[in-house]
Amino acid sequence: MFRTIEISNPAYSPPGLRFVTVKSAALGQRADILLFVPMQAEAQRDVPLVLLLHGVYGSHWAWAFKGGAHLTAQRLIDVRAIPPLVLAMPSDGLWGDGSGVMLSKTLNAGSSTRCQPQQVRHAPRVAMLRLCL
What we know:
A hairpin with a 4-residue loop joins strand 2 (17-24) and strand 3 (29-36). This protein has one domain. The chain is α+β, with helices and mostly antiparallel strands. The longest helix is centred in the middle third of the chain and has 10 residues, at 69-78. The chain is 23% helix and 20% strand.
């Protein structure tokens, strides 16, 4: 689990978007995540979780505020092309100019350890969904 969790107040956030900051033991640092939780998913206990990883020079908010990923997801949910789901858009830690989210042992020689593929595969899905509800 997370040592600390800070979640934005929905009254002050764009509809469906939640800004989350956690202290992650797996990463050994703070982690920022933008979540999109459509109203159709709010009352559900088990919904698909889609992880959107940004590229270099990006940030966790780029999917929503530069690409409108949450608006596209909402349109597809509204016409029943996809089921209600949660979008999770994590930050890469904003090292330097931004690394993109790398699934490698290190960012480059001498840098801190990054998130490993097995950590992503076995991430606590239930814990993330509980943050959304």
